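Appendix B. Chain record.
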Amino acid sequence: MVDEVARAEVLAFRAHAQQLDGAAAAPGGAAVLDFGVQDTGPDGGRWALAIRGAGATAGPGPGGGELATVWTLRGAPHLYRREDLPTVAAATAPYSEADAAKRIFDAARPLRAAGISPLVALDSVAAAMRGLVTGPMTKGEVSARLAELMGPPYLRFCRPCQATHLYEQPFRLAALRAGLELVPGTSPPVLRPIPGLIPAATVPARFDVIRGYLRFLGPAAPKQVAEFLDAPVKEIRARWPADAVEVCVEGEARWILAEDRDRLGQGAVTSTRLLGPYDLFLQARDRALLVGDQARAKALWPVLGRPGAVLVGGEVAGLWRPRQTAGKLRLNLTMWRPLTQALRASIDAQAERLAAFRQVRLVGVEAVD
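C-alpha cells predicted for this chain:
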C-alpha cells in the first residue's frame, strides 16, 4: 500500500532538507552545496547560503576562495565547494547524446544537420575554449574569438547584439568541460581557468543530481526531475534510484529516497526567511503544489523580473522586492496573509539581515497592494 503524504508534510520536508528551518550550517557546509546553489542576481547564491546559516567566501585570487561559480544545471551559474568541482563536472554532464541535444535546445538542429553529434559539439567547443582562455577573459571576448574559430553549424546571428555568436547553451555547458569558472561578482561575466581540473571518473551518490532533486525537492516524479535538468524523461527513468520509495501526494505518484522517508513527518517549520528569486526552494517543478493560486503563481514566477518570496513556516506567504539607492534599502511587501505584529517583527528582522548582507542601511519595510 502506497502512503499518502500531505502537502504540508512535503513543504516542511523540503524546508528542513534545505536548512531553512533555523538550523545553522557550518561555513561552507550547507547541504545544498552538494546539489549546487544558483547564483543569479544580487540576492543569489551567497544570500541563499546566508539564510541557511552558512558562511562562504569566494575571493578574487587564482584559487577563488572555498567556493567556485560555474555554469552547470540549465546553463545557470551555480556555487559549489571548490574541492568538489571534479565531481560536479562529472555529475552535471549530459547522460547521453539525446540528453545533450535536449539541454542545448535549438542548437542541436543545425549541428545534427551537419552530421555533428551534440556531445562531440560540446567537446569541440570546450577544446576551443580551453585553448583560448589562459587567463581572465570576459564572456564577450571569448564569444567573439569562438565565432572566428567554430564552423557555421555552431553559430547563430543574434539580433539584439547584431552579431554572430555561438548558441548560448553550448557556450555555457562547454565552459566547465573546458575547465573554466566564473570570476565572482563580475558583470558581464569573466571566465578564468580552474587550475588542474580533471572530471571525476565516478559520481558518489551524494552528488548524483537525480538523487539530489529527491533529497532537496522530493517527493517527486521523473517528469519533474527531467524538467529541472532540461533532460529527456526517458533518461531520468533509466537512472532512477533503486532505493526510491513511492508515496502519493495530492493523488499523484511521487518518490522519495528510502533514507528520507521517515523525515516526511518530522514536524512543521517555524522560521521566516526572505528567499531570493532563484532560491532552490522556489525551483521545484511542481509549482502548483507550492503556490496553488494561479494569480499568485504568475506574480511569483513572471517571465521577467522575478520577486523574492517571503517564506513563513514552510509556506510562501507573500512577495518582496528591494528598492536600493545611495546605500539605503527599502523592501516592498505583497503579503498573502494578515501581517500580524509577530509576523511583521520576524520579517523586519530578516530585512535587517538582508541589509547587512548587502552592506547598506535598511530604511523601511512597507506592505503594498
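Further analysis of this model is presented in Appendix C.
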